[in-house]
Amino acid sequence: IVPGMLFENMGITYLGPVDGHDIKALYKTFREAKRVDHAVLVHVITKKGKGYEPAEKNPSGFHGTGPFEIATGEPKKAAKTDSYTDVFSKVICDIGRNDEKVVVITAAMADGTGLTRFRKLYPERFFDVGIAEEHAVTFAAGLAAGAVLAEVLHTDYGAFGVALIVLLYLLHNKRTMQCILGAVCCSWELTAPLAFPLIWLYNGKRGRQPRWFFYWFYPVHLLLYVVIGMYVLPAIFL
User: What is the pTM of this model?
Assistant: First the structure.
């Protein structure tokens, strides 16, 4: 199949592939995409860790890392105790050894979720669906229907999120109940409860779409997280 034909046949204009590390090429491609008056898919290819040799050689190890030596990429301090991920890795392998119906599913995060050891021990019961969390959840549901115990790891909100979305939909005519359910279920997510007052106030009409809203809101809310993490929480709990 010619690259892009799948999308073109669905009425989606396909542009690419383009080198994600070539700023000029990206700029040119995005300008072309801007001129299209319907759905556009821009195919960008990047290399994880590009420009930093230790990260290029070990991209999974640098997905999330603590302080490390810039010259070598080695951790500054060796871990003295097992992390939560290390403990989970051992436990899930024990569970897998005792029950052959247990399988695990991850979305391109085998190392980050502690499933590398499980993959080596039980490769036929390890499934990496790539960056497709939605597929991971529905795949797990299909396995469960076939009496297979599937554990989905590293899906933002995961099966819990899918259930919450369904419940919110079923309550779409009951705004107050939506807000109560969301505030209770998402209380562990720092800013999620803040969305529900806005849901309660929503009048069902399409409003203005400020073009630059995302470009200032996203960095501002990340800065807010930094301030809370560095100054507010330590002042309360330490």
Answer: 0.53
pLDDT digits (tens, 9 = 90+) for 107-162: 888 888 889 999 999 999 999 988 888 788 778 877 776 666 555 554 455 556 66
Query: What are the tens digits of pLDDT across the range 225-238?
Result: 778 777 887 777 66
Render the chain in DSSP notation, one character per residue.
Answer: --TTHHHHTTT-EEEEEEETT-HHHHHHHHHHHHT-SS-EEEEEE--TTTT-HHHHH-TGGGSS--SB-TTT--BSS--SS--HHHHHHHHHHHHHHH-TTEEEEESS-TTTTT-HHHHHH-GGGEEE--S-HHHHHHHHHHHHHTT-EEEEES-SSHHHHHHHHHHHHHTTT-HHHHHHHHHHHTTTSSSGGGHHHHHHH--SS-----TTHHHHHHHHHHHHHHHIIIIIHHHHH-
